[in-house]
From TrEMBL:
Name listed for the protein in its UniProt record: OmpR/PhoB-type domain-containing protein
Species of origin: Photobacterium lutimaris
Keywords per UniProt: DNA-binding, Membrane, Transmembrane, Transmembrane helix
Membrane spanning stretches: 133-154
GO biological process, one term: phosphorelay signal transduction system
Length: 441
């Protein structure tokens, strides 16, 4: 029998730090409200208000996107974003997927407003108070906030990634990583799927999994590090897992090196600072994405950025501006293994440059569902984190929440982007071996 949240006990405690007010449809901690877009708010409300019932995908789709027809992938992305905002340490910790049935949320308890204030030691201010009472209230609230702040900061520390480095007899170095234990365990069990079919040798490869989505970054190893011309990053979902290496074997030789990708027909240099690249694979079809990042250093650890995203035309002969986005990036003082640098990104805008008719006329393929999910992620989240995994002169590999892997190549004469990110003598926080590499041909 359904045990719905009662009107008098309208605050659901989801974890030690997170609460959801079913009357206001608000996710919050003692430090403040956690921003949710409309879909996230309605989906979480429906799950919490119906706990512990299992809600099917159709119910959640109608809750999050009323009077709008969307694909199931929109729900998957929303659930994924909610898990990130709730700081799940493993898949299903708070939002649980029941195979072939749907989702349910696991909460600790249901609270009234008075019970919440008693639990968190945050007294409510009475309407009639003298100055002494008000001062006592302020001091008590400040002390409580500081106490909880210490605990909350500990809970909001950078995500702990699970990772493992493997070296094989063919001089391959493979790094498996995921923020979720279940996904990490799957990667370790599926090692042969990634390595044996490709008959790989002399490669550096990073493999990431989150829910149903995979991302791979790969390059040839040389004594000096990664061969820039062989650096590729590919994002795909589980349905492509069995065919990924056969498809890549046919496609990658046709892709120009990152450093040689130009977006202007007259090849005029763009003084952007950084150029990045990745590939989406969906239903056996590849789409190459190229971006230029224009960056303004605000202080020693903060950048304002504008990114222009390009899509190839029908014959892959030119990259054409399709959208742009921007915001702020702030570098953290500390990073956890296996990362060299951690950056918090705060997206502020996203716009399409080309209309659907323009794209059709120019021979640009419609966006794949993966691209739509990525763009929606940039629009809907207030913050996401990027992690630097590998760096060398002119080249860096980043892993970003919601985006997967991207290779970044120094471009133009703006020195600020790479200079701060290249400090130190480590290529990676991991013991990656290049010395045994054979010469690249």
């Amino acid at each position: 029998m359904s045990k719905k949240v009662k009107a008098s006990a309208h605050i659901a405690q989801i974890s030690d730090s997170f609460f959801f007010d079913c009357q206001k449809k608000t996710l919050f901690t003692i430090l403040g409200i956690v921003s949710l877009n409309r879909a996230e708010k309605e989906v979480l409300f429906r799950l919490v208000s119906q706990t512990p019932n299992i809600l099917n995908k159709e119910t959640l789709l109608s809750a999050g996107w009323a009077r709008k027809e969307v694909a199931e992938t929109s729900l998957f992305q929303t659930i994924r974003t909610l898990r990130i905002k709730l700081k799940e340490e493993k898949v299903g910790q708070y939002i649980e997927l029941i195979p072939r049935m749907g989702y349910r949320v696991n909460i600790q308890r249901q609270l009234t407003a008075d019970e919440y204030h008693a639990l968190t030691n945050t007294p409510k201010l009475k309407s009639k108070t003298n100055s002494r009472v008000r001062l006592t209230f302020v001091l008590t609230l400040a002390l409580a906030a500081c106490t909880v702040l210490i605990g909350f900061l500990a809970s909001s520390k950078p995500t702990d990634y699970k990772y493992k480095l493997v070296n094989d007899k063919k001089n391959n170095t493979i790094v498996f990583l995921s923020m979720n234990q279940d996904d990490f365990d799957y990667l370790l069990k599926a090692t042969d799927i990634f390595i044996t079919p490709g008959n790989l040798s002399n490669k550096l490869m990073f493999i990431h999994k989150l829910d149903n989505e995979f991302s791979i970054a790969i390059c040839d190893k040389t004594p000096e590090g990664c061969d820039i011309d062989t650096a590729h990053a590919i994002s795909f979902n589980h349905s492509q897992l069995s065919t990924i290496w056969d498809l890549l074997g046919n496609y990658l030789p046709k892709v120009p090196p990152l450093a040689a990708m130009n977006v202007l027909k007259d090849n005029t240099a763009i003084q952007s600072g950084v150029k990045s690249y990745n590939i989406f694979l969906e239903k056996g079809d590849f789409t190459t994405h190229l971006s230029h990042h224009f960056v303004n250093l605000v202080d020693e650890a903060t950048w304002l950025f504008t990114t222009i995203n390009y899509r190839p035309n029908a014959d892959q002969s030119a990259f054409i501006a399709a959208s742009f986005r921007g915001g702020r990036s702030i570098m953290n003082k500390h990073s956890k293994m296996p990362f060299l640098i951690t950056i918090n990104n705060y997206p502020e805008y996203f716009y399409w440059v080309l209309s659907p008719s323009d794209k059709k006329q120019l021979g640009i393929k419609p966006p794949t569902q993966q691209e739509i999910n990525t763009n929606d992620f940039n629009i809907e989240v207030d913050e996401y984190t990027s992690y630097l995994l590998y760096r060398q002169s002119q080249l860096q590999l980043w892993l970003s929440e919601g985006y997967g892997f991207h290779w970044f190549n120094k471009d133009g004469n703006n020195p600020h982007v790479f200079s701060l990110l290249m400090e130190g003598d480590k290529r990676s926080a991991l013991p990656i071996e290049f010395e045994q590499s054979t010469a690249h041909h």
